[in-house]
Design a protein that fits this description.
- The radius of gyration is 51 Å and the shape is rod-shaped.
- It has helices spanning 2-23, 81-86, 93-96, 183-186, 195-198, and strands at 26-28, 37-39, 69-72, 76-80, 89-91, 97-100, 106-113, 120-122, 129-131, 138-148, 157-168, 173-176, 178-181, 191-193, 199-202, 208-215, 222-224, 230-232, 239-249, 258-268.
- It has three domains: 2-39, no CATH class; 69-168, Cadherins (Immunoglobulin-like); 173-268, Sandwich (Immunoglobulin-like), CATH 2.60.40.
- Strands 4-11-10-7 form a four-stranded mixed beta sheet. The protein has a four-stranded mixed beta sheet with strand order 13-20-19-16. Strands 5-9-8 form a three-stranded antiparallel beta sheet.
- The chain contains five helices and 20 strands.
- The protein is 14% helix and 38% strand.
- The N and C termini lie far apart (204 Å).
- The protein is mostly beta strands.
Length: 287
């Protein structure tokens, strides 16, 4: 009976061992008082067990650096304070900025402005720059960043530029006009001319003041008041006079303070002499 049982166990172990030899290193422990049996499947070099080689994960190729670069076509935008005070200004991207070799979708953004940030905006898709009305005179630095999103071969990237915007106050402009005074009137009374009759003034801001700085002759016959009205005094002789008038302005947010001198030409016409009454006297035909 023991012999039969031993043979049966041996047969079972043989089958089991063969199966396990195929699967790898095994250890079989005797069931009935037998010693432990260890079996190894040797590698082709006879040096140990064979371990299955794992399949490596696919390696993604590294992306290149984006080649985007930007350059200002116009480094400085110059504006007059008077102009921008009334109306906003818009600049297409191609007018002030070039974008070269972008890889992927391009976007635009103002990252900072040294002052008055709310007066500047940019269209994120097409780069159109808007300078809004009401911007005061001064120097502005507008930092613009241009980003390219990248693609399957290139990383996202960006480049930046600093655009200068200079808003200048207009300078005072003054020119003189020509006027004529009637000598007949000037025989008995003064003649006055309004500021608009004798001067053309533009780009003037703040308080104005006026003075006569010289006349080629008879300066004592001319006077100008605080409103710029010119008076020609009675008694002046007929003739043409050059009167130099100085205009000063205090300036404001749009215009510079300044002073200009213009020459006003005053012509005093000759007085008309009284014409005697020349009524025809009927002739005495019978005389």
């Amino acid at each position: 009976m023991k012999k039969r049982l031993g043979k049966a166990l041996t047969a079972v172990l043989s089958v089991t061992l063969c199966f396990m030899l195929v699967m790898g290193v095994v250890e079989v422990i005797g069931m009935v008082g037998g010693p432990a049996v260890t079996a190894q499947v040797l590698g082709s070099d006879g040096g140990g067990s064979v371990t299955p080689t794992p399949t490596p994960a696919p390696v993604k190729p590294s992306k290149k650096t984006n080649t985007i670069s930007v350059k200002l076509k116009k480094k400085t935008i110059k504006l007059n304070a008077d102009t921008i005070a009334k109306k906003s200004k818009k600049y297409a991207r191609k007018k002030y900025l070039s974008v070269n070799n972008p890889k992927g979708t391009v976007r635009y953004k103002i990252t900072s402005v040294n002052k008055s940030r709310k007066r500047f905006s940019i269209n994120s898709k097409n780069g159109r720059l808007t300078i809004k009305k009401g911007l005061k005179a001064g120097n502005y630095k507008v930092n613009i960043r241009v980003t390219a999103s990248g693609n399957s071969s290139y990383k996202s990237g960006s480049d930046s530029v600093t655009l200068k915007v200079v808003v200048s106050k207009e300078k005072l402009k003054v020119s003189g006009k020509s006027v004529t005074a009637e000598g007949t009137i000037l025989q008995t009374e003064d003649v006055s001319f309004a500021k608009s009759d004798i001067l053309k003034i533009s780009n003037s801001g703040g308080k104005q003041s006026f003075s006569i700085t010289g006349a080629d002759s008879s300066a004592e016959f001319f006077a100008i008041d605080e409103k710029g009205n010119l008076t020609v005094k009675s008694g002046i002789a007929a003739g043409t006079y050059k009167v130099k008038v100085q205009v000063k302005t205090a300036g404001n947010g749009k215009y510079k303070a300044g002073k200009k001198t213009a020459t006003v030409t005053v012509t005093v016409a000759p007085a008309q002499s009284e014409v005697p009454d020349q009524t025809d006297t009927p002739s005495d035909a019978n005389a």
